[in-house]
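Quick one: structure for this chain?
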Amino acid sequence: MKTVIVIPARMGSTRFPGKPLVHLAGKPMVEWVYRAAIDSSCADEVVIATPDQEILDAAALFGAPAILTRQDHPSGTDRLAEVADSLAADVFVNLQGDEPLIDSATIRACANALQASPTAHASSVYAECSESEVDEPSAVKVVLRSDETALYFSRYSLPYPRNRRELPVWKHIGIYAYRPGTLRRFVALGPSPLELTEGLEQLRLLENGMQIQMVQGVASPISVDTPEQAVTANELLLSRGA
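Got it. Here's what it folds into:
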């Protein structure tokens, strides 16, 4: 089963323009993500997908294959779908380019979960939600069925503890693996009502009857959405001897 990891990256971030190329411990951020993908040892190919020549040039400098995509994609998943139209594979892993501290074993777990589940349309990852994140909208929650498929995703704390909480609160980690047919259907459907309400594109799959197989993994200590978070990520990488 051929697996391709795709790292969508663009210069036009609203909160942090140019963030894929911000230097962390001497390397552009997207290079750290690429190296984590290689270290996962679960893919036949790892490529960077970008609409920007600057990122293509940077990728060439550290030896990463890169594909130039359209400028007008509304999400990284749409960018991934464009790549899937030009590359033949059974599984496409969407690894966000702002995760320089992503755990390689978590990438591998996500890919393996879809490979092992013949009925799933996609797979993703969860981890236990810390108390400080339970009521934090930026920490997306996932409710699981008994077979570890996703029942629902929300920015709200779920399940609501009207009675004593019997289950942990699970945090969703935003890495996905898709079958190519799922990506084509995702793009064709367009945004769904639940997706627009919560601001969570994975709800488009659930709302249209597609199954997401979840697997437990390790959350990154930080994702980089702002210059301040880049400073923290740089310090963490240096503390690890990067």
